[in-house]
Amino acid sequence: MNVLGVLYLVLLIRSSIAPPVCSGGRLSNPSRRNVPTTVPSGLVLDLEKPDDKLCQSFDYNTDGIPTRLIMPKDDNVITSIKEGSLDIWKASGDNVACAFVTLRLSDGKPVIAQLTKNGNGNPMVTFLKKDDKWDPVNDYSTEVIKLRKTPKSLEDFTLDISAFKDTDQCTVFQVDLLGITTRHFYPKPGHVAIQVKDGNKELWKCGNSDHCVSCIIHKHGSVELLEVGIVENCSKRWRYFEKNGQEWREIEKTEFDEKEQAIIGGKFVSALLDKVDASLFDLEESLEDGIKVLKLTAKEGTSTNELLYDGKTVWEGKKKSCPSAILYMDGEKPTLAVLVTKDKNGKDGKVYQYHDGNKWRDTKEDDHKEKLAELKEKCKPGKTLDISKRDSSVGSYYITYPGYGKIAHNFDLKSATVTKVVDGEHVIWTAKENGHKCIDAKNIVTGGKESLRLEIKADKNEDLWFRKRDGKWTIIPQSNSRA
């Protein structure tokens, strides 16, 4: 799939997947793009029996409407769609290809097919099945309402976007699109999401008559965006968020769209742009081996023999200029730098710098590589310990018997980088910063009571104590810190 295909796919996936309750869907209207109109080679999709070797499909529920998403694997495209012997659509003219298909189901069979295309013209086309025939339609709101299933009872729940797999209340799936990862959350039939959280942190809570029908996370490198679909009185609206470090910040739709457009294009204009001289350098943010990296490129027609970051000198050369540089971040602060230099004769060179906690200093290439390896280890994506899985899949597990009828389930985690501790679907603890990790866990069971001690390695090592009450873990005052 080409870049334009991804652009259409990611921008439109939310409108195709999550239609409003009382209408046929929110349709974006991007401007026409100058893309080739020749029909590419692609797949023939049979809705009756999709080939799971060539396509992936996901079944979920959109506010009571059974829905199925079908998407080609390996960045392929769909050029023909049929249902058994019934032809539905073929690519031709401005219908260059179909990026994915969203189906609305009746008794498990498709009756509405919404195609999202990656070519010129209307990016969406919808087909309705009637009398064993598929025909294109402009308005399918009446038909889609007929598909809604009303459950006998409803159960409120909190939707946790830290989940990576289905729960009893919510369908969760993830799709990777040329470096753009989208993770989707949809309440299951009979369940109403009245709150959205990320672990223990609340992002949204319902009012008197609204509820959440979908959440979609878009992730590319260090950039993470979230949109929450909310229905209130037959009208759908969205709330938008951006993740900064460990915290989610609510943003406006215009800012969300700009950032989403940026990551689709493969570049993200960093929020750290004000830390460097934007008149001299273009700045691009990316993620390499878990490390946030800032790439600086001198603007055309400019020259500088000094690199400043946040008003402090990273490097200064008397007779050399700096056409480009890479800063390696430890959290939100740069700690290593590699600069390309050019002397008056046009000869290129490299300079290695590191921050000792107070100021920037020169270093050699070998020392730089050693420090970079240490930073990679520190920023390595953390593992999740699930204390309900009493095994050595993460760290080393063993049982002890402290006495008085107690059983202690121990997890020695020094050999692993554990940044999250859960009990099944419930998040107990999450690391707040890079370098913070859990190095030991002890789950003590006495009769029907459970407690948990976590040893956390941070700036100061500390013990955190939790007690399980009514199926939920809460921190208790016995927590103490030690140097």
List keywords for this structure.
Signal peptide containing protein; DUF529; six-stranded antiparallel sheet; 483 residues; signal; mainly beta; disordered C terminus; disordered N terminus; 52% strand
Commentary on this structure:
The chain is mainly beta. The protein folds into 4 domains: 150 residues, no CATH class; 117 residues, no CATH class; 106 residues, no CATH class; 99 residues, no CATH class. Helix content is 10%, strand content 52%. It is globular and about 80 Å long. Keywords: Signal.
* Structural shape: globular
Which strand-content bin applies to the residues? Answer: over 45%
Structural class: mainly beta
- Rg over alpha carbons: 26 Å
Report how far the terminal alpha carbons are from each other.
Answer: 54 Å
Main sheet makeup: 7 strands, antiparallel
Q: What ranges have pLDDT less than 50 throughout 5 or more consecutive residues?
A: 1-40, 479-483
Mean pLDDT: 82
User: Treating each run of at least 4 consecutive H or I residues as one helix, how many helices?
Assistant: 4
For the secondary structure, the number of strands is 36
Total count of domains: 4
**How much helix is in the residues?**
under 10%
Concise description?
Helix content is about 10%, strand content about 50%.
Chain-wise SSE layout:
Elements: H1 3-17, E1 43-46, E2 55-62, E3 65-72, E4 78-83, E5 86-90, E6 98-106, E7 109-117, E8 124-130, E9 133-137, H2 141-146, E10 155-160, E11 170-177, E12 180-187, E13 191-198, E14 201-205, E15 210-220, E16 223-232, E17 235-244, E18 247-251, H3 253-264, E19 281-288, E20 291-298, E21 306-309, E22 312-316, E23 321-330, E24 333-342, E25 348-355, E26 360-363, H4 365-379, E27 383-386, E28 396-403, E29 406-412, E30 418-423, E31 426-430, E32 437-446, E33 449-457, E34 462-469, E35 472-475, E36 480-481
Parallel strand pairs: 1-4, 10-13, 27-30
Antiparallel strand pairs: 2-3, 3-6, 4-5, 6-7, 7-8, 8-9, 11-12, 12-15, 13-14, 15-16, 16-17, 17-18, 19-20, 20-23, 21-22, 23-24, 24-25, 25-26, 28-29, 29-32, 30-31, 32-33, 33-34, 34-35, 34-36
Helix pairs in contact: 1-3
Keywords: Signal
InterPro entries: DUF529
Signal peptide: 1-18
